[in-house]
UniProtKB/TrEMBL annotation:
Gene3D superfamilies: Vaccinia Virus protein VP39 (3.40.50.150). This is Carboxy-S-adenosyl-L-methionine synthase. Signal peptide: none annotated. CDD domains: AdoMet_MTases. S-adenosyl-L-methionine binds at residues 49, 74-76, 99-100, 127-128, 142, 209. Keywords: S-adenosyl-L-methionine, Transferase. Residues 72-168 form the Methyltransferase domain. Belongs to the class I-like SAM-binding methyltransferase superfamily. Cx-SAM synthase family.
Length: 254
């Protein structure tokens, strides 16, 4: 009788050099090449990411409820999934991570298997717009909604709010744009300086921006707040912001 196969170890994490040389213009995709360098890419590209992830654990602990479901929609490699896993204080909760990239899910499975927390995690490779949601206490959209077509965002958030228990919450992290042209220019410049400080060249910054600008569609903070309230949440607050990156907490009243 053969023994169960153990994970061989985490997938190799490479330095993000995807845009370091001239390349043919094409839209950004979460394919295998991105999955291989994603931990390095997001750490060097998103100000505050290394703060947001551990705080998702803290927030999850505060809002998770016994015998409920928790969801990480757009889980990528599972950083926020694992944070939620360690924050959930009830053994009878279920935790589901969803992503439409098979390359991301495949690598996420390795990280989940290597984690020593006993709470089961279910991973689904599917479109979050089609994911069935119910009896939720905590849902996370960590830099995910910005990749959903704008005309479909209200429907998704309304489904999340409708599936959320009283006292439950949604953690929503997003890149935003600003009403003021002047502020937008300042915040964009600071974000680019953050990338340069993390070793990205002007070519990398320019090519990544060109690849992602038709895929990642940011909105204003006011638009996000109004949509969340219209979707059915009762309170919306910003708990973190650095430059043009924010994380919000949308809460259902008890």
């Amino acid at each position: 009788m053969s023994k169960p196969r153990r994970p061989s170890g985490p997938p190799a994490q490479l330095t993000d050099r995807l845009f370091a040389t001239e390349r043919r213009p094409e839209d950004f995709r979460f394919d295998a090449s991105v999955a291989r360098v994603f931990p390095d890419m997001i750490r060097r590209s998103v100000p505050g990411y290394t703060t947001i992830i551990p705080m998702i654990e803290v927030i999850t602990e505060q809002y998770a409820q016994a015998a409920s479901n928790c969801y990480d929609l757009g889980c990528s490699l599972g950083a926020s999934t694992l944070a939620m896993r360690h924050g959930i204080p009830y053994g009878d909760c279920t935790l589901t991570g969803v992503d439409n990239s098979s390359a991301m899910i495949e690598r996420c499975e390795h990280y989940i298997a290597l984690d020593d927390n006993p709470l089961p995690v279910s991973l689904r490779c599917e479109d979050i717009l089609e994911t069935e949601l119910n009896n939720a206490s905590v849902t996370t959209l960590n830099f995910t909604l910005q990749f959903v077509p704008p005309e479909k965002r209200t429907e998704l958030l309304t489904r999340i709010a409708g599936a959320t228990r009283p006292g439950g919450a949604l953690i929503l992290s997003e890149k935003i744009r600003f009403e003021s042209v002047e502020e937008q220019e300042v915040q964009t410049r600071l974000h680019h300086e953050f990338k340069r400080a993390n070793g990205y060249s002007d070519l990398e910054i320019s090519q990544k921006r060109s690849a992602i600008e038709q895929v990642l569609i940011p909105e204003t903070l006011a638009a996000h707040k109004q949509r969340l309230l219209s979707a059915g949440f009762d309170q919306v607050l910003v708990w973190y912001q650095c430059f043009n990156f924010v994380s919000m907490l949308a809460i259902r009243a008890d």
